[in-house]
Amino acid sequence: MEEKNLESIMGLIMFGGNAKSDAMEAIAAAKEGNIKLADQKIEDAKASLVEAHRAQTGLLTQEAQGDHMTVTLLTVHAQDHLMTSIAFTDLAKELVDVYRRIEEK
Protein backbone atom coordinates (compact mmCIF):
# COMPACT_ATOMS: atom_id res chain seq x y z
CA MET A 1 0.00 0.00 0.00
CA GLU A 2 1.30 3.43 -0.93
CA GLU A 3 2.29 5.70 1.93
CA LYS A 4 -0.09 8.49 0.87
CA ASN A 5 -2.98 6.02 0.95
CA LEU A 6 -1.91 4.67 4.31
CA GLU A 7 -1.82 8.21 5.73
CA SER A 8 -5.35 8.87 4.46
CA ILE A 9 -6.62 5.57 5.82
CA MET A 10 -5.04 6.21 9.21
CA GLY A 11 -6.59 9.69 9.14
CA LEU A 12 -10.01 8.13 8.70
CA ILE A 13 -9.43 5.86 11.67
CA MET A 14 -7.86 8.52 13.90
CA PHE A 15 -10.31 11.35 13.21
CA GLY A 16 -13.26 8.97 13.24
CA GLY A 17 -12.14 7.68 16.63
CA ASN A 18 -11.69 11.20 17.94
CA ALA A 19 -15.19 12.13 16.79
CA LYS A 20 -16.73 9.11 18.48
CA SER A 21 -14.86 9.81 21.72
CA ASP A 22 -15.93 13.45 21.72
CA ALA A 23 -19.52 12.44 21.02
CA MET A 24 -19.45 10.03 23.95
CA GLU A 25 -18.02 12.77 26.17
CA ALA A 26 -20.81 15.07 24.99
CA ILE A 27 -23.43 12.58 26.13
CA ALA A 28 -21.70 12.14 29.49
CA ALA A 29 -21.47 15.91 30.00
CA ALA A 30 -25.13 16.42 29.12
CA LYS A 31 -26.12 13.61 31.47
CA GLU A 32 -24.30 15.46 34.26
CA GLY A 33 -26.12 18.69 33.34
CA ASN A 34 -23.14 20.40 31.71
CA ILE A 35 -24.82 21.36 28.44
CA LYS A 36 -22.16 23.95 27.59
CA LEU A 37 -19.44 21.29 27.68
CA ALA A 38 -21.68 18.88 25.79
CA ASP A 39 -22.15 21.45 23.02
CA GLN A 40 -18.39 22.00 22.84
CA LYS A 41 -17.75 18.26 22.59
CA ILE A 42 -20.29 18.00 19.75
CA GLU A 43 -18.45 20.80 17.95
CA ASP A 44 -15.15 18.98 18.52
CA ALA A 45 -16.67 15.79 17.11
CA LYS A 46 -17.93 17.67 14.05
CA ALA A 47 -14.47 19.17 13.49
CA SER A 48 -12.90 15.71 13.61
CA LEU A 49 -15.46 14.44 11.12
CA VAL A 50 -14.54 17.28 8.75
CA GLU A 51 -10.90 16.17 8.91
CA ALA A 52 -11.90 12.55 8.34
CA HIS A 53 -13.97 13.59 5.34
CA ARG A 54 -10.96 15.42 3.92
CA ALA A 55 -8.96 12.22 4.08
CA GLN A 56 -11.81 10.30 2.52
CA THR A 57 -12.25 12.89 -0.23
CA GLY A 58 -8.58 12.55 -1.12
CA LEU A 59 -9.02 8.82 -1.64
CA LEU A 60 -12.22 9.30 -3.61
CA THR A 61 -10.63 11.94 -5.83
CA GLN A 62 -7.68 9.67 -6.50
CA GLU A 63 -10.07 6.88 -7.47
CA ALA A 64 -12.14 9.17 -9.71
CA GLN A 65 -8.96 10.22 -11.53
CA GLY A 66 -8.25 6.60 -12.39
CA ASP A 67 -5.56 6.00 -9.77
CA HIS A 68 -7.09 2.87 -8.26
CA MET A 69 -5.88 1.47 -4.99
CA THR A 70 -6.08 -2.03 -3.65
CA VAL A 71 -8.85 -2.31 -1.09
CA THR A 72 -7.56 -4.04 2.01
CA LEU A 73 -9.12 -4.99 5.32
CA LEU A 74 -7.53 -1.84 6.77
CA THR A 75 -9.30 0.27 4.15
CA VAL A 76 -12.64 -1.36 4.94
CA HIS A 77 -12.03 -0.92 8.66
CA ALA A 78 -11.26 2.76 8.18
CA GLN A 79 -14.44 3.38 6.21
CA ASP A 80 -16.50 1.42 8.74
CA HIS A 81 -14.92 3.39 11.58
CA LEU A 82 -15.84 6.68 9.91
CA MET A 83 -19.42 5.68 9.16
CA THR A 84 -19.94 4.45 12.72
CA SER A 85 -18.54 7.72 14.08
CA ILE A 86 -20.87 9.76 11.89
CA ALA A 87 -23.90 7.80 13.10
CA PHE A 88 -22.74 7.98 16.72
CA THR A 89 -22.20 11.75 16.52
CA ASP A 90 -25.66 12.24 15.02
CA LEU A 91 -27.16 10.22 17.86
CA ALA A 92 -25.13 12.15 20.44
CA LYS A 93 -26.52 15.45 19.09
CA GLU A 94 -30.03 14.15 19.60
CA LEU A 95 -29.31 12.94 23.13
CA VAL A 96 -27.71 16.25 24.09
CA ASP A 97 -30.85 18.01 22.84
CA VAL A 98 -33.01 15.73 24.99
CA TYR A 99 -30.90 16.51 28.06
CA ARG A 100 -31.04 20.23 27.15
CA ARG A 101 -34.84 20.12 27.19
CA ILE A 102 -34.81 18.36 30.56
CA GLU A 103 -32.48 21.03 31.99
CA GLU A 104 -34.69 23.84 30.66
CA LYS A 105 -37.75 22.58 32.58
Automatic annotation (TrEMBL):
Presence of keyword GTP-binding: no
Q: Does the keyword Transport apply?
A: yes
The record's section on InterPro entries has: PTS_IIA_lac/cel, PTS_IIA_lac/cel_sf
- Mark the residues carrying the PTM Phosphohistidine: 77
Which of UniProt's keywords are assigned here?
A: Phosphotransferase system, Sugar transport, Transferase, Transport
- Protein name stated in the entry: PTS lactose/cellobiose transporter subunit IIA
Q: Which Pfam families match?
A: PTS_IIA
| Segments passing through the bilayer | none
* PANTHER family, A to Z: PTS SYSTEM N,N'-DIACETYLCHITOBIOSE-SPECIFIC EIIA COMPONENT
